[in-house]
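Q: My labmate handed me this sequence with no annotations at all. I'd like to see what the chain might look like in three dimensions before we decide whether it's worth expressing. Could you predict it?
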Amino acid sequence: MSSLEDRDPYALFAEWLEEAGTTEPNDPNAMALATCTPEGRPSLRMVLLKGVIAQAGAEGGFIFYTNLESRKGGELLANPHAALCFHWKSLRRQVRVEGPVVAVSDAEADAYFASRHRDSRIGAWASMQSRPLQGRFELERRVAQFAARYAVGAVPRPPHWSGFRVVPEVIEFWHDRPFRLHDRVVYRSEGSGWTHSRLYP
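A: Here is what I predict for the chain of 201 residues:
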């Protein structure tokens, strides 16, 4: 394994993600996303990483997409800060990311939405994410309704569906070692670069 220290953290993350792609049974790009209400109440769920802009400072970050009217969407709009955790059990590795959140551009959201499977695009219209559902039939009825509406031609991106970019202020790499003497190295954003230090396990 390459050293965790004195590296570009984005490059190191890309190496770990690529390796996880060969060892994890499902979704190596899965990550836990923690958000918080304005009152300080946290919530957590799994989402999928859909892109990384490997640039230090405010222009870089980790991208995911969601229904803006979902619980996480509402919390991020009200309190634009988040934390991410990638855990690759097969590699005994973990990466934690913390930082502010910014919305992706309409062009970015349109491009990613257009790349999705057509049924997933229909699903984005049909699902009133995080709101009460009377039963499975109600969801299936809505899917059928929007499938009929967009039976011909492209399925446009819903106005309530877009993405966010978590701009890392902190990226921590953790690697399991025997007897719980793990390697932990934390990178902190500083101007156009990074500082790094070791942490006790």
